Amino acid sequence: MNSSVSPVPEPPLPGGVVAAALDDVAGIGPFFALAVGGSGDGWHPVGDTYARGAADLVAATAGRYGTAELRIGASLVQFGHASRLWSPVLACALLHGVVPDLAGLQRADDGPALRLPAPAGWPAPAADRLPEVLYDAVVTRHLEPLAAGLRVKVAAGLLHGNAASALVGAAAALRAARPAQAEPLTRLTDALLRTGRLAGTGLFTGPGPAFRRRSCCLYYRVPGGGTCGDCSLRT
User: Fold this and answer.
1) Which letter does DSSP use for residue 229 in this model?
2) How many other CB atoms sit within 10 Å of the CB of residue 96?
3) 113-138 burial, b for 16+ CB within 10 Å, e for fewer?
4) What are the angstrom distances between the C-alpha of 64 and each of 54, 105, 156, 218?
């Protein structure tokens, strides 16, 4: 994973502050839950998963949905992973002014759950810098290495669309749980959708936040599947 720059120029926060923020946001929903501490048995560095293209999860996901198309499994795995990254990062930054340090992130050996061996992080920077810091934390350091390691061909635009859709989904869940944060959350989400590879992936279409992406995650191709609410294929 790319770790060439520190996300913010501030001294790191005490571990207890980061742990408290992560514990609070974990109650919002399952994608916001990021395990912290405990035994390392049954976990491995997420970078190992990226290097292997998440092949175990891709195969298991394709099998669970009854499809032989591994690119569908790869798309759904990447989408889910993006959701598990954006959700706690977005919530911690907005609700607690904390940017969790995901450099030591681990993945469960038997599934997609994520864990930090120890809590670490930095104070969130000013609002004008926050989008680039969160983009770096999630997209540059995690989603790009995952995409680079995939062993099946998946269009880059599809993966970027997944990342954007996962971001908007996380924002919608956070808004529902903490409606008082609606305005700053919308501003932050909109700014992120204009950052880096997320730019041009889709458009806000209304409050909620509602989003219409310009690509499709391929879920419609699984047996019994259909189009998602933000899918470009919906008419």
Assistant:
1) T
2) 20
3) bbbbbebbbbbbbeeeebbbbbbbbb
4) 15, 26, 24, 15
Q: Which of 117, 93, 120 is nearest to 105 (CA)?
A: 117
Contact in structure between 83 and 166 (CB atoms under 8 Å): yes
Q: Are the C-beta atoms of residues 44 and 107 closer than 8 Å to each other?
A: yes
CA angle at 179 for the pair 27 and 23, rounded to the nearest 5°: 20
Q: Specify the pTM.
A: 0.92
CA neighbours within 13 Å on the CB side: how many for 10?
18
Nearest to 123 by CA among 91, 93, 98, 101: 98
Report whether 40 contacts 93 (CB < 8 A).
no
- Work out the average pLDDT over 217-227: 70
3-class secondary-structure state, position 7: coil
Torsion sign, CA atoms 194, 199, 205, 209 = negative
**Does pLDDT of 216 surpass 70?**
yes
Under 8 Å CB-to-CB from 14, ≥6 apart: which residues? none
Residue 206 has pLDDT above 80, yes or no: no
pLDDT tens digit sequence for 78-104: 999 999 999 999 999 999 999 999 999
